[in-house]
Design brief:
CATH class of the largest domain: Alpha Beta
Strand order of the largest sheet: 1-12-10-11
CATH superfamily of the largest domain: 4-hydroxy-3-methylbut-2-enyl diphosphate reductase, catalytic domain
Shape: flat
CATH topology of the largest domain: Cobalt-precorrin-4 Transmethylase, domain 1
Largest sheet: 4 strands, parallel
Structural class: alpha/beta
Number of strands: 12
Number of helices: 9
Radius of gyration: 21 Å
Helix content: 25-40%
CATH architecture of the largest domain: 3-Layer(aba) Sandwich
Order of helices and strands: EHEHEEHEHEHEEHEHEHEEH
Distance between the termini: 13 Å
């Protein structure tokens, strides 16, 4: 029978922004005033969030739920008015917003102040996009797909920022259509380097592997996008959070398994998946 060949993507797992946020949270646990909270999950990985809960870091949905202690702003960023409220309540605030997200927020605000009608390319309900919109006082328009452009009127000046985990392909498609609506268009490509690297590595591996396994939170936009990219390459793809979800029947008749992971997926989860698949006897065609 023999073992399956398992190949990991060249770029997979934690990005700089996630590592930075988790270090900040770990420092807060050791030295900041208790209790400690995060506004929403600190990153989109349920297993990591559960580990932090055991350390006394609990996610909340509303600053009104906190009377004292420390509040950590998650990687996706929030409405700056919420930060002000936390400070007014006498809470210690630890801003773990990813620097790439902060850049997108600042670019959106700059465009608005410069008289541009601001377009945010991204997922309307994603917390990062919600935070970016807040930096334009809610005046920006969100474009998720090319079809959304039909709802946008022509403007003298259009300014564009992008959710950090979007794909360059989608950015190019939408910009090509937006260009006809404005006399002037100013674009800030705020997709982070880690996102681009992981997407390109996943696409490359998917063209070589018989089947792809994508590891990461089901609530993680960047992980879900990796799975979509692998599927678009024509490769059978499974998006899982942990090794427990692996079904050996997935690999029957296959030789090579490609494995990648989202930017909020810890190394230990990725290692467990690779180790478990490596122990499976490869199936044979009937």
């Amino acid at each position: 029978m023999g073992r399956l060949k398992v190949e990991r993507a060249d770029y997979a797992g934690y990005c700089y922004g996630v590592e930075r946020a988790l270090k900040m949270a770990s420092t807060a646990v050791k030295s900041h005033e208790k209790p400690i909270y995060t506004l929403g999950p600190i990153i989109h990985n349920p297993q990591v969030v559960e580990l932090f809960k055991k350390s006394g870091v609990n996610p909340i949905d509303d600053i009104k739920d906190v009377k004292k202690g420390t509040v950590i702003i998650r990687t996706h960023g929030i409405d700056p008015k919420v930060t002000d409220k936390a400070i007014d309540r006498g809470l210690r605030v630890v801003d773990a917003t990813c620097p790439f997200v902060a850049k997108a927020q600042n670019c959106a605000e700059e465009l608005m102040r410069g008289g541009y009608e601001v377009i945010v390319i991204g997922e309307r309900d994603h917390p990062e996009v919600v935070g970016i919109l807040a930096h334009t006082d809610g005046l920006a328009r969100v474009v998720e797909e090319v079809s959304d452009i039909a709802e946008i009127d022509s403007a003298k000046k259009l300014g564009v920022v992008v959710q950090t985990t979007q794909s360059l392909t989608k950015l190019r498609e939408i910009i090509a259509e937006l260009a006809s609506l404005a006399g002037e268009i100013k674009i800030y490509n705020t997709i982070c380097n880690a996102t681009t690297q992981r997407q390109e590595a996943a696409r490359d591996l998917a063209t070589k592997a018989d089947i792809m396994i994508v590891v990461g939170g089901k609530n993680s936009a960047n992980t879900s996008r990796l799975a979509s990219i692998c599927e678009e390459a024509g490769t059978k793809t499974h998006h899982i959070e942990t090794a427990d979800e692996i079904d050996e029947t997935w690999f029957e008749g296959y030789e090579c398994v490609g494995v990648t992971a989202g930017a909020s997926t810890p190394e230990w989860l990725l290692d467990e998946v690779v180790d478990n698949i490596s122990k499976i006897d490869k199936g044979t065609d009937n």
